[in-house]
Design goal:
Structural class: alpha/beta
Oligomer: single chain
CATH architecture of the largest domain: 3-Layer(aba) Sandwich
Largest sheet: 8 strands, mixed
Number of helices: 16
Distance between the termini: 23 Å
Number of strands: 16
Number of domains: 2
CATH superfamily of the largest domain: Glycogen Phosphorylase B
Helix content: 40-55%
Radius of gyration: 22 Å
CATH topology of the largest domain: Rossmann fold
Length: 400
């Protein structure tokens, strides 16, 4: 198939970890026989007079680049201050229009594979209508579990799921919500994310702790994710203080960066946890394996998730998880042989971590489960659905 992947949620040379799960999915689809994938990843236009690190990173993104195995185009689109999300999808469509028109004329795409329902898939559906290309939109999380609550955005989401030719939810909870927004059930399929077992696999804990300078005398908890409120670190950090009061020699490493760092640093200081909670900053995806292997347990305390990749990544390294019982997480942690699901409060998180840290886990079973959901498996499921939707569209065009 000739596939155009369209999304702003895609890694680039200045943000190699951003949207890496989209890259992984489509790189594996590209490896299947007969497939050719082109990526259009729009970037906001940031003129030189706009200050800030984020603006500098956007300006540093080239118009065209090779990321991993895939050729990526980065058309610019305008963002109008104070308008917010309402015009975001339309502006993305306008900014990408000429690039997609040129590529469509050259490559004759069979379908557009769009990620993030709004604004990205909204723009993709407009592009699909403009150039007669079927669009399959993937819901990832916030686009469906938060944006429908925004009054001016909800109608745009509804229009997108009702006009896309096909839809993918990375968990059944998102798929069900798209149907509730008006999507036709026969156009929706649930295809969860995967894991790369060649990147994530167990390492000797003592050896990796020595390399990472992680103390062997402590119980180690790892949390991976941006420093934002939705990740629930304001609940996890007090849970660590609770476990410390219980006499557990514990240390938490948080791998991620974000705007909540100052607040979390104050919390860590006020709770007297400066030696026990480490804000490590971003860790490249291909280096996370050592950290998962060094940990006794990993923890995801989010209030919203689609299908959290960090869960399978941890499991593929043989490390059990403690995770909040929300959205797609129970579809990943399907058994207490893999980890523990807890309510979203500090007491429940502390109790779950205590149980996990004192339990003897069958790590080989955890690894075996994770490997069943490889990106190769996901790629075949995605390929089948893209072909089915494209063929449906072609048959409909033939009949008319």
């Amino acid at each position: 198939m000739r596939i155009l992947t369209f999304t702003s949620l895609f890694p680039d040379s200045s943000r190699p970890n951003f949207g890496v799960f989209v890259y992984q999915r489509m790189a594996h689809v590209a490896r299947l026989p007969g497939n050719a994938i082109t990526v259009v990843a729009p970037v906001p236009y940031m003129p030189a007079w706009i200050p800030g690190q984020k603006a500098r990173k956007y300006r540093a993104v080239p118009a065209q680049e090779k990321f991993g195995e895939l050729l990526v185009y980065h058309p610019r689109y305008p963002l109008i201050p104070k308008v917010g999300l309402t015009l975001h999808g339309l502006l993305m469509f306008l900014g990408a229009y000429l690039t997609v028109r040129r590529l469509a004329a050259q490559k004759h795409f069979d379908c557009i594979d769009a990620h993030f329902v709004y604004p990205d898939a909204f723009a993709a559906v407009l592009l699909g209508k403009a150039f007669g290309i079927p669009v399959i939109a993937s819901a990832r999380g916030t686009d469906i579990n938060l944006y429908p609550t925004i009054r001016h955005v909800r109608p745009l989401l509804k229009w997108t799921v009702q006009h896309a030719d096909g839809l993918i939810g990375v968990c059944s909870a998102l798929s069900q919500e798209m149907v509730a927004l008006g999507a036709r059930p026969e156009r929706v399929r649930t295809i969860g994310n995967g894991v790369d077992p060649s990147r994530f696999f167990p390492s000797n804990q003592t050896e990796v702790r020595s390399l990472l300078e992680v103390p062997n005398s402590n119980k180690i908890v790892l949390a991976v994710g941006s420093l934002v409120a939705v990740k629930g670190y304001h609940l996890l950090i007090p849970a660590i203080a609770d476990l410390k009061r219980r006499g557990i020699p514990i240390r938490l490493y948080i791998a991620g960066e974000g705007p909540a760092r100052p607040q979390l640093e104050r919390m860590i200081h006020n709770l007297g946890l400066s030696d026990d909670v480490i804000l490590h900053g971003n860790i490249p995806n291909d280096q996370l394996r050592s950290w998962y292997s060094a940990a006794d347990v990993s923890c995801l305390s989010s209030s919203r998730e689609g299908w959290a990749n960090v869960l399978l990544e941890s499991m593929a390294c043989g490390t059990p998880v403690v995770a909040s019982r929300i959205w797609g997480t129970p579809e990943v942690v399907v058994s207490d042989d893999l980890g523990l699901l807890v309510d979203l409060n500090s007491q429940a998180i502390a109790d779950g971590l205590s149980t996990a840290l004192h339990r003897s886990w069958n790590r080989e079973r955890i690894v075996s489960f994770a490997r069943q959901r490889s990106w190769d498996t996901v790629a075949h499921e995605v390929q089948q659905w893209l072909e089915e939707i494209s063929n449906r569209k072609a048959r409909g065009a033939t009949r008319t």
